[in-house]
């Protein structure tokens, strides 16, 4: 008398997970999700520095060490034609001092970074630094490209 353990009286393994039968997967395959996240991470890492500098400026080279980024930071840019920008907004001549007048009030003024094109006359850069000084900003960081040999 032979008896099979776990036999199915209604049929040979239908509806159950048996030999060669397919069952629904209860696990999520995370590999495609991780692939998409890594691609997005690379895209954001490449585009993030471009978002911080909206005005196209050809910066001079320097051996200076990079500064830490701060939350309350104002970026003043001067392009090759001498136009002054506060963050991404172009300002009229002489407007920089009055626009910065309200920003410097408080316990500690925000960090001011000055980005100036390499072809500019030093007098134009010094004039903008004078406007920043008149607006109450005594500490100004000059932004350059890091390189091994300054030009």
TrEMBL record:
InterPro entries from the UniProt entry: ExbD
Question: Which residue ranges run through the membrane?
Answer: 36-57
Q: Where is this region: Disordered?
A: 1-21
Tell me which UniProt keywords the record has, alphabetically.
Cell membrane, Membrane, Protein transport, Transmembrane, Transmembrane helix, Transport
Per the record, its GO cellular-component terms are: plasma membrane
Known Pfam families for this protein? ExbD (PF02472)
Single GO BP term: protein transport
In terms of one coarse class, where is the protein primarily found? membrane
In the bilayer, the protein is annotated as:
Single-pass membrane protein; Single-pass type II membrane protein
Which compartments does it reside in? Cell membrane
Superkingdom of the source? Bacteria
Say if the entry is tagged with keyword Nuclease.
no
On whether Transmembrane is a keyword of this UniProt record, the answer is yes
Kindly list the GO molecular function terms attached to this UniProt entry. transmembrane transporter activity
Which family is it part of? Belongs to the ExbD/TolR family.
Query: What is the recorded name of this protein?
Result: Biopolymer transport protein TolR
Upper lineage is: Bacteria, Pseudomonadati, Pseudomonadota, Alphaproteobacteria, Sphingomonadales
